[in-house]
What we know:
This protein is an alpha+beta fold. It has three domains: 1-6 and 14-61 and 106-151, FAD/NAD(P)-binding domain; 67-104, no CATH class; 157-201. It is built from three helices and 13 strands, in the order βαββαββαββββββββ. Strands 6-2-1-9-8-7 form a six-stranded mixed sheet, covered by helices on one side. Strands 11-12-10-13 form a four-stranded antiparallel sheet, with no helix packed on it.
Amino acid sequence: MHSIWQEKIxxxxxxxxxxxxxxxxxxxxxxxxxxxxxxFQHAQGKAVMMLEEKVISQMPELGGMGxxxxxxxxxxxxxxxxxxxxxxxxxxxxxxxxSDDCIxxxxxxxFLFMTEGIEIYEQTAVCSRQGKRLDIxxxxxxxxxxxxAEKRKEPFYVYVFAESGSGKMPEGEFEEMRRxxxxxxxxxxxxxxxxxxxxxxx
Length: 202
């Protein structure tokens, strides 16, 4: 099941890496966090690459909840930098500033904008790693810095609910919740939620 963010979105055709490459910074995993960091590294003139073992256009987890939060001073500084950058560049990612510690965005649109000009390879899995050299089976990748995306340990589900006539939020125990167009998105570790239109796992 695709996420709500992937509807009517055209993804670039990302190639499969089949020859040796070098990079200053290599990101493993097509995540929004990696995309944002890669964008700013690329803007500093560094040679940046991203590897993803799946087909990016078919990754429901890429969408997530579209909620970016800061939980400490360092994260708040990074969030404000991103917020001001999105606003200043008028990046079309449907940003809503909820508070000093939270913004809502269209994560796939932001991902696609932030990865423009960056070398991205999909269906490219790392077989083994020796220091700064990665073996991807068909080739080697050497990078001065390697950053791997953190993977969620427990399943987490994003449920899509139709907005009620009263505009009220869906009831239930949800860890995160936000409105998007005529829907409510609710995130939960539970798999026994009722009344949703559809869901995806992140």
